[in-house]
Design a protein that fits this description.
This is Histone deacetylase. It catalyses: N(6)-acetyl-L-lysyl-[histone] + H2O = L-lysyl-[histone] + acetate. One of its GO terms (molecular function) is histone deacetylase activity, hydrolytic mechanism. It comes from Scheffersomyces stipitis (strain ATCC 58785 / CBS 6054 / NBRC 10063 / NRRL Y-11545). One of its GO terms (biological process) is heterochromatin formation. The strands form 2 sheets. The chain has an 8-stranded parallel beta sheet, sandwiched between helices. 32% of the residues lie in helices and 9% in strands. Helix 9 links the parallel strand 7 and strand 8. The longest helix has 20 residues. With 500 residues, it is of the alpha/beta class. The chain has a single domain, classed as Arginase, Chain A (3-Layer(aba) Sandwich), CATH 3.40.800.20.
């Protein structure tokens, strides 16, 4: 059953067009769990900086999602838990002693300034991404602020307070009969699995480290119960798994699951703690090995939402998410990092790469063969994808967009509103001045001549800064050099010599 596949160089098809909606809120990097805490939302800002400086923003529609409201959060979480999150803060913590124990808030999940706003940004991005997929406005939605897969219905867990993935999947289920959730974080996606453990509308597949490792769930025999039996797939792995081994497990399993389950939408959690050298992880994946999973799932051309997740070595997470954003846009980014505001974080090599270490791979072929055999046997217990009864789909909430950006005054400004500019995509066949590699050189055709002249644009002060107003008027009357032929230019030069 298990066959070791060769790990080839990643390939993309530039002719394959994908409409991508990328969600980012500039405030996300302002939140901090506290000094010494391994979870740092700042890594999302670092990844965004790389994405922008590599020029990927030209290929995607960029959105700042409306933060999730209390009402939206309560589609999954309990009212009292969300009410607690909205009211608690570092200043009034002593008033919530009982609730802290009840809702598991404390060491791993501390209370920090802006906690509820942080949850709102995370949940809003995933819900809005799902809504755009539902309306057919995009093929892929990206929300790196999401992916908080440990949060439960009424308790925080594993640095996660709000389960944005479950909220996003609930939104997808309004339009899609079957949703597949894939998790490549080093930790088991227990919160999402638990939420959909008894239903066949969502299939969860988690590839994670198992055995004396947080959260301690995700055994091979956990397959779901009741109507959801066989719709939870767990792939428990051991320390040190490398690119080729991971690929040899991931690709055949995902192919089999998609062939059998036939999902109409996929949610992919791409936590960066499965990368080599992570502070809390124990896998040995390179950037290419991690990105191969995203590239493989994308190849099925099923509407997909990509969310973030874990990842505690910030520079590696930022590199990988930027590289994967390139793959989703069918671009392989060059390894030389562009200069950005966090450039010094990437020393000493300043390269877009996460290399594997010489860690020993404890996943033997016999062990992996046993896992694959067991999972595929379970899948074959039910031979067809589950059907769904016809139901009335609730109406979508009114899309007000970014109200501040869409005021008449904002749209009347030069270039339109910021929101309108973010939604523009640069087509492959368009040419923009800033793309010119010759730093301002441009080709101009000269009338009545068989040659083209390469001309450097002349840097001049604006007319209003001229020393004399009359000089400025005269300057306007001089014909542009670009309309003169080469012979006329030579003739003027000769006349100038004669005058001198």
């Amino acid at each position: 059953m298990y066959v070791q596949l060769p790990f080839d160089e990643l390939k993309v098809d530039p002719t394959q067009k994908k409409r991508i909606a990328y969600f980012y809120d500039a405030d996300i990097g302002n939140y901090a769990y506290g000094a010494g805490h391994p979870m740092k939302p700042h890594r999302i800002r670092m990844a965004h900086s790389l994405i922008m400086n590599y020029g990927l923003y030209k290929k995607m529609e960029i959105y700042r999602a409306k933060p999730a409201t209390k009402q939206e959060m309560c589609q999954f979480h309990t009212d009292e838990y969300i009410d607690f999150l909205s009211r608690v803060g570092p200043d009034n913590l002593d008033m919530f002693a009982k609730e802290q124990i009840k809702f598991n808030v404390g060491d791993d999940c501390p209370v920090f300034d802006g906690l509820f706003e942080y949850c709102g940004i995370s949940g809003g991005g995933s819900m809005e991404g799902a809504a755009r997929l539902n309306r057919g406005k995009c093929d892929i939605a990206i929300n790196y602020a999401g992916g908080l897969h440990h949060a439960k219905k009424s308790e925080a867990s594993g640095f996660c307070y709000l389960n944005d993935i479950v909220l996003g999947i609930i939104e997808l289920l309004r339009y899609h009969p079957r949703v597949l959730y894939i998790d490549i974080d080093v930790h088991h996606g227990d919160g999402v699995e638990e939420a959909f453990y008894t239903t066949d509308r969502v299939m969860t597949a988690s590839f994670h480290k198992y055995g004396e490792f947080f959260p301690g769930t995700g055994e091979l025999r956990d397959i779901g119960v009741g109507k959801g039996k066989y719709y939870s797939v767990n792939v428990p792995l051991r320390d040190g798994i490398d690119d080729a081994t991971y690929k040899s497990v991931f690709e055949p399993l995902i192919s089999k699951i998609i062939e059998w389950y036939q999902p109409s939408a996929i949610v992919l959690q791409c936590g960066g703690d499965s990368l080599s050298g992570d502070r809390l992880g124990c896998f040995n994946l390179s950037m290419a090995g991690h990105a191969n999973c995203i590239n493989f799932v994308k190849s099925f051309n099923i509407p997909m939402m990509v969310v973030g997740g874990g990842g505690y070595t910030m520079r590696n997470v930022a590199r990988t998410w930027a590289f994967e954003s390139g793959l989703l846009n069918n671009v392989i980014l060059p390894s030389e990092l562009p200069y950005n505001e966090y450039y010094e974080y990437y020393g000493p090599d300043y390269k877009l790469d996460v290399r594997p270490s010489n860690m020993y791979n404890t996943n033997s072929p016999e062990f992996l063969n046993k896992i694959l055999t067991s999972i595929i046997t379970n899948l074959e217990n039910t031979k067809h994808a589950p059907s769904v009864q016809m139901n009335e789909v609730p109406r979508d909430a009114e899309d007000l967009g970014d109200v501040d950006e869409d005021t008449k005054e904002a749209i009347d400004t030069k270039g339109g509103s910021q929101q309108a500019r973010d939604e523009q995509i640069q087509p492959e066949n368009e040419f923009y001045d800033e793309d010119d590699k010759d730093e301002g050189e441009k080709m101009i055709s000269v009338p009545d001549a068989s040659i083209e002249v390469k001309e450097k644009p002349i840097e001049r002060a604006p007319a209003e800064e001229a020393k004399d107003v009359e000089d400025a008027k005269d300057a306007k009357d001089v014909p542009s050099a670009s309309v003169l032929t080469k012979e006329e230019l030579d003739e003027i030069e000769e006349l100038n010599k004669g005058v001198n």
